[in-house]
Write a sequence for this structure.
């Protein structure tokens, strides 16, 4: 099995899931292969083997990652993937993207190579932007 691109997401009401699927569509349109996982079904050690890792989580709590499923997964993964290219994305509503700035900053401090971030306000259709990100991944 090719371990090229993995997309792992958490989504409470489907917006981040839609972005995950649009990114995957972009990868496929560009001729790449991709595996998409709901974080509930993803195993940290297996995800760490992919060449490029794309992680999606909406702004939750007060400008933080979702704390019961996604954050524990992410923290464990982070320790295994120093130096790897990662792409971060997610949906948000009333904020200004602070959760993503914090996430990208922490990831960089912990030696991940954050190549791109994509945030989409929940009222906007981010499908095209997400697809284009997928194309750039290939
Ligand atoms: C419990 C909860 C906390 C949230 N906290 C924030 C926040 O701090 N900042 C923000 O911009 N949006 C916040 N939101 C809005 C979500 O990020 C937004 O609805 C997003 O589209 C949800 O994505 P999803 O459909 O993938 O779950 C929050 C939503 C919920 C349910």
């Amino acid at each position: 099995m090719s371990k090229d691109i993995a997309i792992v997401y958490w989504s409470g009401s489907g917006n981040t899931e839609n972005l995950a699927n649009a990114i995957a569509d972009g990868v496929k349109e560009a001729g790449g292969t991709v595996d998409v996982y709901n974080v509930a079904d993803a195993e940290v050690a297996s995800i760490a083997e992919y060449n490029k890792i794309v992680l999606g989580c909406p702004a939750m709590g007060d400008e933080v990652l979702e704390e019961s499923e996604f954050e524990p997964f992410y923290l464990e993964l982070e320790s295994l993937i120093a130096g790897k290219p990662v792409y971060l994305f997610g949906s948000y509503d009333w904020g200004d993207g602070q959760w993503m700035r914090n996430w990208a900053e922490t990831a960089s401090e912990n030696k991940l190579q954050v190549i791109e971030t994509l945030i989409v306000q929940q009222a906007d259709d981010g499908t095209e932007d997400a697809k284009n990100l997928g194309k750039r991944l290939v």
Observations:
- The beta strands are 5-9, 34-38, 52-56, 85-92, 113-121.
- The chain has one domain: 5-137.
